[in-house]
Design a protein that fits this description.
Rossmann fold; alpha/beta; 6-stranded parallel β-sheet; 374 residues; 15 strands; 17% strand; 2 domains; 7-stranded parallel β-sheet; 15 helices
Length: 374
């Protein structure tokens, strides 16, 4: 049996609840063949009850320590947990986990995996030097998308020979169509009347998400589509700024902020258009959730979007930061519901390729090859 200790800097993020990778760990764990692979998680930033409950519900054991990213006690905590659990592989997520974890792996004679989930526009100087120094003891690495893989080689000094692209997968058997009553209740809760067109996006309200540009693009078409609403699902540091911008553009109640929602299905399902206006991403998971629900998708070419969406066939793809193109595509999709629906139907048909069951089979094979080569 291969015993994989996942070491992660933290399991949650403000505005989005538990991380996408935390969800993926749970999805993978409950689908592993227990005779072949088992997981345990060590989180480095203190107790996180919501994430712990989620992972426990998937049959995973979680251990917590609460140390700062430069605290040398992180090294000893990882070593102690690896020895206690008799780990076979250290799978590392985040800067502190990857920095101290690679050193622990070398000391204990275990293979390590450095896993990156997003493209960062810049790296802190300390991490640039840490990655350069530790590149020679990086045994394997995973990137959620080709864009992240390029970033890992260019920005994190990961040896290309160690690198594979690996998407988490989505548990589509769980991500079912919400009941009409749930959609109606979600609409009512934010004051969107029945039948009013909705443009929706979901995720953390952060600068990388391109929300300013989305609000301005909506303002450009709002006069033509007089009853449409823009719905933002999530929380984060940009909330007040987005609200102020909406007010300044005279949009008032036509921009609805729903806050963080554990179950995003009714919110995605109500959308005539689901938008991903981000400047950079890893996946994102909401792309595949919207595909599964058959929503017409309008996105920038970030993360896995170029692999999942084909412009003009199963969605619309516009350049990052091009608000005119974003507004034009919004207008087109709202003005031609039949064409929008054809994009949604094609996206739903394509979603099967991104199912988590395929990802788990590949992941078990990855661990088997890593341990065998070691």
């Amino acid at each position: 049996m291969i015993r994989v200790l996942h070491v992660i800097d933290k399991l949650s993020v403000e505005g989005s609840g538990i991380h996408g990778i935390t969800r993926a760990l749970g999805w993978w764990a409950e689908r592993l063949e227990p005779a072949r692979v088992r997981f345990r998680v060590l989180s480095l930033r203190g107790d996180e009850p919501e994430a712990e409950a989620f992972l426990a519900g998937k049959g995973m054991e979680v251990r917590f320590v609460d140390y700062a990213k430069f605290d040398p006690r992180v090294f000893f905590a990882i070593a102690r947990e690896a020895r206690r659990w008799n780990a076979t592989v250290l799978h590392l997520h985040g800067y502190a986990a990857a920095d101290f974890g690679r050193l622990v792996a070398r000391m204990l004679g275990l293979p390590n995996v450095v896993h990156e989930h997003v493209v960062f526009p810049s790296q802190p100087t300390y991490q640039v030097w840490a990655d350069r120094l530790l590149a020679g003891i990086t045994d394997a690495s995973l990137a959620i998308s080709p864009a992240v893989a390029e970033f890992m080689v260019r920005g994190r000094a990961v040896p290309a020979r160690t690198l594979e692209t690996f998407f988490y997968g989505i548990p589509f058997e769980e991500f079912t169509e919400p009941a009409p009553a749930a959609i109606a209740a979600a609409r009512e809760s934010v004051g969107i009347p029945p039948g009013v067109p909705v443009i929706a996006t979901a995720g953390r309200l952060a600068a990388q998400k391109g929300l300013d540009g989305l609000v301005r693009a909506f303002a450009a078409v709002a006069g033509k589509h007089g009853d449409a609403r823009l719905l933002l699902v999530g929380e984060g540091p940009e909330r007040e700024r987005v609200q102020s911008l909406a007010q300044a553009l005279g949009l008032g109640e036509r921009v609805c902020l729903a806050g963080y929602r554990e179950d995003v299905r009714p919110w995605i399902a109500m959308a005539e258009v689901f938008v991903i206006p981000s400047h950079y991403e890893g996946g994102p998971l909401t792309l595949f959730e919207a595909m599964r629900l058959g929503r017409p998708i309008l996105s920038t070419p970030v993360g896995l979007v170029p692999q999942a969406l084909e412009e003009g066939r199963n969605g619309r793809v516009v350049p990052v930061g091009n608000e005119d193109a974003l507004a034009s595509a919004l207008d087109e999709l709202l003005s031609d519901p039949a064409r929008a629906a054809s994009f949604g139907a094609a996206a739903r048909a394509d979603s099967e390729a991104w199912d988590v069951r395929r990802a788990v089979e590949r992941l078990m094979g990855f661990y088997g090859r890593l341990v065998g080569a070691w």
